[in-house]
């Protein structure tokens, strides 16, 4: 039974954090911040392909119905709500790891068109094509009397 307890650097770090949360931060501040930044996040790339933007996100193991893609006033948001809901009755697990997480990533595309957007999930990679529109002048000159 003792072999099922995960003794390792993560286990030791968790014990240190439980008993001395500030000491571990000051001894390894960048390691602590890096682990917080990487928890639940997914990689996303934005490419300017001339007449459109191509946004790709690495979402391995995520199903279509767990992804939400939205374009709101030029801000493209990709949200993932990943939950494992399968309960296997009758099994006596000594240790079971699940991957339940949620994350949202976004990018502002000021000349994104609201029509003609396409999204495709293939091999764990979500690809969103966002056509560009002619940029409208949002600046209004005001004459001074």
UniProtKB/TrEMBL annotation:
KW Nucleotidyltransferase (keyword) present: no
Keywords for the protein's UniProt record, in alphabetical order: Stress response
PROSITE patterns: SHSP (PS01031)
Residues covered by the SHSP domain: 35-145
InterPro entries registered for this protein in UniProt: A-crystallin/Hsp20_dom, HSP20-like_chaperone, Small_HSP
Family (UniProt): Belongs to the small heat shock protein (HSP20) family.
Name of this chain's protein: Heat shock protein Hsp20
């Amino acid at each position: 039974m003792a072999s099922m307890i995960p003794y390792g650097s993560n286990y030791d770090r968790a014990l240190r954090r439980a008993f001395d949360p500030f000491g571990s931060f000051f001894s390894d501040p960048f390691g602590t911040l890096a682990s917080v930044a990487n928890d639940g996040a997914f990689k996303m790339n934005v490419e300017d392909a001339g007449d459109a933007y191509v946004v790709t996100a690495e979402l391995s193991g995520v199903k279509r119905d767990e992804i939400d893609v939205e374009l709101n006033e030029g801000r493209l948001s990709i949200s993932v709500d990943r939950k494992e809901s399968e309960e296997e009755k009758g099994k006596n697990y000594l240790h079971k790891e699940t991957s339940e997480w949620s994350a949202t990533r976004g990018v502002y595309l000021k000349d994104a068109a609201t029509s003609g957007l396409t999204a495709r999930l293939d091999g764990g990679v979500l690809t969103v094509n966002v056509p560009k529109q002619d940029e409208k002048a949002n600046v209004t000159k005001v004459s001074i009397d």
